[in-house]
Structure prediction request, 151 residues.
Amino acid sequence: MSPSTTYTRTRTALLGATLALAVTLPAVAACGSGSSTGSGPTTPTTPAQASPTPAAPVKVTVDETEFKITLSQSSFRPGSYEFAVTNSGKFPHNVVINGPGVDKQKIPAGTPLTAGQAGAGTVTLQSGSYEIYCGVPGHKAKGMDLTIQVS
Prediction:
């Protein structure tokens, strides 16, 4: 075999190996990394869905005097409400809320507010009618009683 024949066969073998490698590498690269820079089909990546953040309660101020309850709003929609109660009167007072899903919840919980004190509580209101009154004995009968509609 002449040196030129050996050279030609070696060159042909190298060319064949190079072509085989050129064909194989893109296929291997496409299988491994999980990311694609080519123009082939890809699977869209979506961010993790966060659970919705609950809305903050709507603040309703409640002023109590002898013998009246005054709310800062008269229109209510279903949702969470923070009732911020101030006793502007001379006698102890509290607020009791009773209606759908709320069973005589006292605000503030525990003992009534003395003159000048304030307290708060959060209540979730559903559609329907709610009674709001002072839970101190005798005060409801003296006019510390009102009804709100939630719709």
